[in-house]
Specification:
The protein is of the alpha/beta class. The protein has helices at about 10-15, 25-40, 85-95, 100-115, 125-140, 145-150, 190-200, 225-235, 255-265, 305-320, 340-350; strands at about 70, 150-160, 165-170, 215-220, 245-250, 275-280, 295-300, 320-335, 365-375, 385-394. Helix content is about 35%, strand content about 20%. Strands 6-5-4-7-8-10-9 form a seven-stranded mixed β-sheet, with helices on both faces. β5, α9 and β6 form a beta-alpha-beta unit. InterPro entries: Methyltransf_16, SAM-dependent_MTases_sf. One of its GO terms (molecular function) is S-adenosylmethionine-dependent methyltransferase activity.
Length: about 400
């Protein structure tokens, strides 16, 4: 973890030594990691650290698509400069307030304490490691939890080829900590990457008046904070495409409430007679009959977290999409942790014998699959890249 006058710049989830290697880690490695965590979470209790340089972020798109830099004040700033200490402080504050990172650190410190006796270091060093780890953990429980409970407002700016940018403001609400299904309260890397790609190359996604019917219907599945839907609502009119409506759907009530707040923030009630985006509850396992073949464009970003999710998503999308409609699905690749192998469940759900069939004998199948590289400064530390699927009837 790189430290500076203003604190760390890398999320702990991408910079701490893996738990499985803690026993064999050197005393220097463990102490360096603990110092970095102290500077991040207990900055007022430490002396000023030497300032180190901050590399300029390079967010070039992958897969042959030149994607301009999306500006996200959560983790990255387009105007970042080597000597821009304010930008470093902004990134550090975002990491410090991130519930995902704090949960990751809590588990890492707990594992470190439990394995300290197995480490090949002196008894005195072991005791110091335990004391330091406990000190950081105590700072979490002794605090007023204001940071943890306070929502993080994030400003996104996605450049387009029209010498303009699509601006979206989001409230990333804190996770409740009581329900694992409320992950939609956070904006994940895949939704940021997909939004930036659509703005940079709308033709690739068929977001033109020539590709879409007049007044198309659009549905986002597992919308979460609504970033993709809100981006489309602001992008499409610049392309002379005017949807009948964009339905940002999710299942979790808390997520839907936060989603509605984000819609109101970007399209304040009273200023728009017809709101371009609406929040709607949708259960993938039981899609409403009245929405059958109703959407010309389906979107989903990082919504598969269990094997059954891919099958539910497949059948729900086949129910919702029109005969000539397209379903764009972006799946996050994680190479370790409990979500490792999730992309494989998507591939398995679309094997020929499981693909839904229509009355014309066509299959609802993957038409294209592209790998998209992870952008520096975007997404969580456990994200290694993304699989982008184009799915439709064939």
């Amino acid at each position: 973890m790189t430290t500076s006058h203003s604190g760390p710049c890398l999320p702990p989830s991408s910079s701490l030594p893996p738990v499985r290697f803690l026993v064999s880690a050197s005393e220097e490695q463990v102490n360096a990691a603990l110092r970095a965590l102290q500077s991040l979470y207990c900055p007022l209790r430490l002396p000023v650290l030497p300032k180190s340089s901050v590399r300029r972020k390079d967010l070039s798109a992958a897969s042959g698509v030149s994607t301009p830099v999306p500006v996200d004040s959560g983790y990255v700033s387009q105007d970042e400069d080597d000597d821009d200490e304010a930008a470093v402080e902004e990134m550090t504050a975002a990491i410090r307030a991130d519930p995902f990172e704090r949960t990751f650190v809590t588990r890492w410190l707990t594992s470190l304490i439990s394995r300290a006796e197995e480490m090949d270091i002196t008894e005195e060093a072991k005791a110091q490691v335990v004391d330091d780890a406990a000190f950081i953990l105590s700072s979490f429980s002794d605090s007023t939890n204001e940071e943890e409970e306070e929502a993080l407002t994030r400003e996104f700016s996605f450049p387009t080829d029209l010498d303009a940018s699509i601006e979206v403001t989001l409230n990333d609400a804190p996770l409740t900590g009581t329900d694992h299904t409320d992950v939609g309260l956070q904006s994940w890397g895949a939704s940021i990457v997909l939004s930036s790609m659509m703005c940079a190359d709308p033709e690739r996604f068929g977001l033109t008046s020539a590709s879409l019917p007049e007044r198309p219907s659009i549905i986002e599945l597992g919308a979460g904070t609504g970033l993709v839907s809100l981006t489309l609502a602001k992008l499409l009119p610049t392309l002379s495409v005017y949807p009948t409506g964009i339905s940002a759907t999710d299942y979790h009530p808390t997520v839907l409430a936060n989603l509605q707040e984000n819609i109101n923030t970007n399209f304040p009630p009273g200023e728009n007679v017809n709101m371009p985006v609406s929040a709607m509850a949708l259960d993938w396992s039981m899609p409403p009959p009245d929405l059958e073949s109703s959407s010309e464009l389906l979107i989903a970003a990082d919504v598969v977290y269990a094997p059954q999710h891919a099958a539910w998503l497949r059948d729900c999308a086949a129910h919702l999409v029109t005969d000539n409609g397209i379903f764009w699905l972006i799946v996050t690749v994680r190479q370790n942790g409990k979500f490792e192998g999730i992309p494989d469940t998507v591939e398995a759900a679309f094997v020929p014998e499981l693909c839904p069939k229509d009355g014309q004998g066509r299959s609802f199948k993957i038409l294209e699959r592209n790998q998209v590289e992870k952008r520096k400064g975007i997404g969580r530390g456990d994200e290694k890249g993304y699989n982008l699927y184009k799915i439709g009837w064939f």
